[in-house]
Prior knowledge:
The complex is a heterodimer. Chain A is an alpha+beta fold. Chain A has helices at 3-9, 13-24, 31-38, 42-54, 96-109, 113-131, 137-146, 168-173, 175-190, and strands spanning 29-30, 58-63, 77-82, 151-154, 159-162, 196-200, 209-213. In chain A, the strands form 2 sheets. A 4-stranded antiparallel β-sheet of chain A has the order 4-5-7-6. Chain B has a single domain, classed as Alpha-Beta Plaits (2-Layer Sandwich), CATH 3.30.70.
Amino acid sequence: MEDIEAIAVLQDPVRRRLYEFVAAQDHEVSRNEAAEGAGIQRTLAAFHLDKLVDAGLLETESRRISGRSGPGAGRPAKLYRRSGAEHQFSIPARDYRTAADLLAEVAEVARLDTQLQDAARREGRSAARAAGPVEDLDAAAALLAARGYEPRMDEGEDVLRMANCPFHALSESHPPLVCGMNLALLEGLLEGAEGLSVRMDARPGLCCVAVTASKNNECLT
Amino acid sequence: MTEHHLAQLNVGVFSFPLDDPRMDGFRTMLDPLNAVADSAPGFVWRLVEDGENDATGLRTSLGEDVNINLSVWESREVLWDFVYRSGHLDMLRRRGDWFRLPKAPFQVLWWIPAGHIPSVEEAVERLRLLRDQGPSPRAFGFRDSYTPEEAAASAQ
Lengths: 221, 156
């Protein structure tokens, strides 16, 4: 399916709600859960979920939720998660991706990590000035969400982790360079936010940066 | 078919002696990161000096100021996840603080039969092969990986 067709599938508001709900979960989602999350009936949800799978926006897997197997375990449930495919459509045609790949390649060979981090930090600071003050983790989450990071609060830990890396493909082809750039960008973005600290905490499947609320504003000397 | 494991060697040229205070950041990350590697999924083996927890004291024909890191993993994916999606990424990000970064490749990967423990000489030879002749099934990097089958075919 062409990118434009995949994107057009999301024009339907119900489908879009379902897609966003599934994408926001940290686990694979059953039809029942998706229906409940989007506030629609199960059969309608099933119909739209399959449209999203056909468009390549979601992936599906069958598994017995109860963990039982063999006769009597029941039909395996269909579980949905966001697909890893990227879709872009631009009018007129643009190809920033090839340019970014080439620039990253050259920056890596020339060992320009530090210069790139400096530029990213300046970019983050300037975006922070435009966004206004950030006073707590919730405000940081809103700011990060607006930049496409899909932040999730790690329960009980006062840590924000990002389910989406806006620089995903580049972060896989040039990890130290691009993840270092991303960290510096977020440091710049949140350096005025008192009580919040930004650090690298790379894990499979997540953006490599975590934002932490320091509980007592570090009065230690 | 023989099962294969992936061997990796990476090298760094120390900017300062290991006991220099400017190397504190590197030294303090070593033990925790080695512990992460040892318990990482798919980790098989890493080179350590006798009686030590790492190989920072070992020297090779690559030079007196060259630190080597030699390990074996079950697949490219598990090694990639450790190198780039664990605490190790932060060390890579800061490596310029502690190491001079040569323009030549400083990491090499190659397939070995499962159970084989690569020698330092073998590892250095693979790095030289990559540096001299570019990526091939016998010595490659993450960006231009080859399969064990391609490596076997090229050795015929």
